[in-house]
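Task: encode each sequence below as structure tokens.

Item 1
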Amino acid sequence: MNLHRFFWRELTLVGARLYDRSDFERAVTLVADGTVPAERLISKVVPLTEAPAAFEALEGGGDVMKILVDCTDDAQGATR
């Protein structure tokens, strides 16, 4: 990784720890065969304009598991 470029572009790096390839393969299998209902993991899909409120909801806890931010032009104003 070119760290100079990374910092120059002000990128954010997010990593996962304690998981290896076999863990991710197992997770994909569990979702694919319906053992884990993926639709229940996503609490809400919001347009980019609602991202700040989505982050506040995540920080607030409660019944929020995951909120997806849809950055496409078509998503503006649409929520699920």
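Item 2
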Amino acid sequence: MNLYLLFKSLHLISVISWMAGLLYLPRIFVYHSEADHDSQKEVFKKMERKLYNYIMMPAMLLSWLFGILLIHSLGLQTFSELWMQVKTVSVVILTYYHFSLGKYLNDFAVDNNQKTSKFFRIYNEIPTIILIVVIFTVIFKPL
């Protein structure tokens, strides 16, 4: 079996799972910040915690692992290509975004959220913009 294709497939599966979480968790935050009843808030807390810990965190770690294995199988000279540098910076930004969601999750968990639903609606667009940059950069390698 071709290890490169195996790593690439597992990388794509991991990234899709991670992106799903990065797009869904802020949407849950929107609903959570608009919730009026404690019972609703508790349901959102449980959903947020499970999504972050059981889907997003493993998917992020596996995305990084298989991405690093892909680079290793292609050769480290891949980093000298500007498209790979753009992709890497984009992934670092997504990782920062991921952990910022963890911070907001912790704020909600202790009933200390200071952000509005409008903030989370706008914040939710960041991973989409980065996804577009990464897709076009990786496919067209324009740089």
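Check on item 2: The helical segments are 3-34, 38-74, 82-109, 117-123, 126-140. The chain is about 85% helix and 0% strand.
End of task.
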